[in-house]
Design goal:
The radius of gyration is 25 Å and the shape is globular. It contains 15 helices and 26 strands. 23% of the residues lie in helices and 32% in strands.
Length: 580
């Protein structure tokens, strides 16, 4: 990838926006006083990455910068447009620890020929004392002829775990104007208005017998385990530091402080959120990531897929199956449905909440708590702004994660104050949407030979470059589906074949942004079922697809073969979810 050098830093204190002869130009904020953390990456560097591709830069301009001018938003969609619009980029980094003296800022553009391997990078060293540094751009089309779209900003630090507050602002060329960004007043979490907002999150306390039992166990000082399963919000995305500021950890700590008799009471956190994945993958992961293959019997299970399940092929069958898988366990955990929200006020609550009503489960909606007050001014009753709540268009900030934790905390408090219900969950009524996948089990390289006849063919290697997720209270990422089968450039044309008896089968394969990966054809009983393209999502990610779902268990032959012209490419089968 081309490197077009480093631009000297402006050494003056505070912002130093370029000035017109008569009128000072306002900046377009892409990041505004945002907490960041240096996280170790596969290349061994410690960075915070801010992605700009797709609609992300335009969304940041709208959301953080308040831009409504369609001309400006259109220019931000391409590298050439951005260079015509932006004179320079202002970067301010204020480290939280004294031993962090600087950060290396890089602006990456994705290339036309190969998005992640060509295109330009501009790099500059920024002091970590809050002084603004300017990275000057130029609009020479010839010099940047391979640039296609803005890719990402990267802030690199010398060590992992470094925390800082950062702002990134575009200073525009003459003729463009953007709204002035005013600082939001701090969120008053002690105010009555905040408490009233939190109370709106409780859709239903549901049958409280199981949750009351968990609370009483905690009060007696007995071991209590709280488990969370969901997508990237449950993983902790947007929280800094992720492992201690995510809503899962915060609500676990809140439960512990409220009910456990001592700080060292035996409580355990199980956090099983994986970014970009729906309940279709959650049902495959449940036994491994929540129950830990039978080692763990959680007292409380919180299910959060309200913004991820647009990708659920079953439109709720996998979600209800996952809920039932947890509810039906012999140890009778309390199951709580949690509905998070995106910056556009969207989630799938209308589809998923009926499942909770059907089984009379506790339900908490972050959407119900915050979206109405987002529309208000401070004078009208706004408690927290969207800019304060959202780290980006998908994920909460620390303050947003705090709101989510407090919403769960309100359910805990209401349950504690209420008399115990005599009734408990009963599995006598038919499912609302479906329960076809409630008995799903994970099959991978570790156990596959016990449940199926497998001929590896050209899929004999193991992929180690995997999506990772910070599990439990860990600050490090855990590779997802490490017991996999990978086809490589040298594997040849031989296909992967598996003969298995089952009612249903879910294939989990790896998405990747690397051009080394290619397309594979998936055959079931000699019929082409799917052509799997790992570049549909285009980042290292776990993708789940249903190969079949039938009323009775029968023997099936599954064959996976590289598509014509892709025999010299990689493809990774991460595993399968099967219903016996």
């Amino acid at each position: 990838m081309a490197d077009h050098g480093t631009t000297a830093a402006n050494e003056t204190e505070g912002p130093a926006a370029p000035q017109d002869p008569e009128v000072g130009r306002r900046g377009l904020y892409i990041l505004y006083e945002t907490m960041i953390e240096a996280t170790i990456r596969p290349d061994g560097k410690y960075t915070q990455e801010i992605y700009l591709d797709g609609s992300q830069l335009v969304d940041k301009a709208r959301f953080t910068g308040g831009v409504t001018d369609e001309t400006i938003l259109e220019l931000l969609k391409s590298s050439s447009g951005l260079r015509r619009l932006v004179d320079c980029i202002g970067i301010s980094v204020h480290a939280h620890e004294r031993d962090v003296s600087s950060a290396l800022f890089t602006f990456w553009n994705w290339g036309k020929a190969n998005p992640y391997e060509t295109g330009s990078r501009q790099t500059i060293t920024c002091p970590a004392n809050g002084t603004e540094t300017l990275l000057v751009l130029d609009d020479d089309e010839c010099r940047y002829s391979d640039d296609h779209v803005p890719g990402k900003f990267v802030l690199e630090f010398e060590r992992g775990g470094a925390l800082a507050t950062a702002s990134i602002v575009f200073y525009l060329r003459d003729g463009y104007q953007v709204p002035e960004v005013a600082a939001d007043p701090p969120v008053d979490v002690e105010s009555q208005a905040y408490q009233d907002m939190i109370k709106k999150s409780l859709i239903s306390p549901g049958h409280n017998k199981r949750l009351k039992a968990a609370i009483e166990k905690a009060k007696r000082g007995e071991p209590v385990t709280i488990a969370y399963i969901g997508g990237s919000i449950t993983q902790g995305a947007g929280a800094v530091p992720l492992h201690s500021q995510c809503y899962a950890y915060q609500s676990y700590e809140l439960f512990k402080r409220r009910f456990a008799p001592a700080a060292d009471s035996p409580m355990r956190l199980i956090k099983a959120g994986v970014g970009g994945t729906p309940s279709e993958l959650g049902i495959v992961r449940y036994d491994r990531d929540v129950l830990r293959e039978g080692e763990v019997q959680p007292d409380i299970v919180i299910v959060e897929f309200a913004v991820n399940d647009a990708g659920d092929e079953t439109k709720g069958n996998c979600y209800e199956s996952l809920v039932l898988k947890a509810l039906r366990a012999d140890h009778k955990p309390a199951v709580i449905l949690l509905f998070s929200v995106f910056v556009n006020d969207w989630n799938l609550q209308d589809r998923l909440a009926p499942v909770g009503w059907h089984y009379n489960l506790p339900m908490v909606s972050v959407k119900d708590a915050v979206t109405e007050q987002f529309r208000y001014s401070k004078e009208q009753g706004n408690v927290i702004t969207k800019r304060q709540f959202f780290y980006d268009i998908y994920h909460p900030t620390n303050a947003g994660h705090r709101v989510m934790a407090d919403c769960l905390g309100w359910l805990f408090e209401v349950t504690d104050r209420s008399p115990t219900d005599k009734e408990d969950f009963t599995d006598v009524q038919p499912p609302l949407i479906g329960n076809d996948f409630a008995l799903t089990k994970l099959l991978d390289r570790r156990n596959g030979d016990r449940f199926a006849r497998i001929d590896l063919g050209g899929f004999s290697d193991t992929d180690t470059d995997l999506q990772t997720a910070e599990m439990d209270d860990h600050a490090y990422g855990t590779p997802q589906f490490p017991h996999n089968w990978m086809h490589t450039a040298d594997s040849g044309k031989h296909s992967f074949k598996m003969t298995i008896r089952s009612k249903s089968l879910i294939l989990v394969y790896k998405d990747s942004g690397s051009r080394a990966f290619g397309t594979a054809n998936i055959w079931v009983d000699r019929k082409l079922k799917k052509t799997a393209d790992p570049h549909e999502v285009n980042w290292t990610h776990c993708s789940a697809v249903i190969l079949y779902n039938e009323s009775k268990s029968e023997e099936h032959v599954v064959e996976i073969q590289m598509a014509e012209g892709h025999e010299d490419k990689r493809f990774t089968i991460l595993g399968f979810g099967y219903v016996p």
